[in-house]
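Intended use. Records like the one below are meant for learning the mapping from a protein sequence to its folded structure. Do not use them to infer anything beyond what is encoded.
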Amino acid sequence: MRVFIITGISGSGKSVALNALEDAGYDCVDNLPVDFIHDLVQSLSKQGREKLAVAVDARRGQSIKELPAIIEQLKKHHDVRVLFLNSNTETLVQRFSETRRRHPLSKPDDNRSPQVALIDAIEKERLLLADLAETAHNIDTSHIKAHTLRSWIQDLLKNERPGLTILFESFGFKHGVPRDADLVFDVRCLPNPHYDPQLRPLTGNDPEVANFLREHPEVQAMGDDIRRFIETWLPKYQADRRSYLTIAIGCTGGQHRSVYLVNCLFDYFKKKSQAIAEDDFHLLIRHRELDLNSLKKETSA
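Structure written out for the chain above:
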């Protein structure tokens, strides 16, 4: 049985994620008590159900600390994936202000204590969920809309087979390092097409930019070094029984160099995966800044 555990910081998009999984044919349960997860999985499995998504968050209080042990137990018999949604504090404060909803941890522990400030409640929640964040596939929703989050989750669901899913992601350092990255490589030292007026409006997806970067030996050398590092340590990540590995490549704006190198790495490992057992790993590709720019154009159109 495929089981998705959705958790993360309140206000980061768990409802959107759960709805996306429901649209994909999953049985979905929100805010299920942690103690009931194992029984629910067993019951649905006996009924022949194949897909379940459960949202668990800070509303469960200290009992959520039991979740990692429950997940490990379930993994012995089921394909369990943990999705952790996160966002920066500034964005979360804005979202709670817009919706005028209370944070689930803003209520004081007793009636004599004052209500917990929103920022303090968010930080308290981060500490409570820290262990889950360490072992889950993280998605940073700080700067993305619900439409984009649904699209990214649909990409994750394309691989229904077991095995490690590797996500290659390009980004721009001036927009912040992705919070969901497991490995980050900085390629800002490479020749920058931005300074060529003809290449500036293009991206690493365009042949002109790819040809420009291909002509510089240091670009090839950087790509080879990153590829060798991944190949060397990939078996260790697979042996760690993790479901997802996000590899982020960053340049200044996330438009040229990082996009080109992510495309190169994706193409290389795609050919590699076709030459070995299919279930060893699966590949996804994401260009964060290009996705966001595309969404902005759609919104303004």
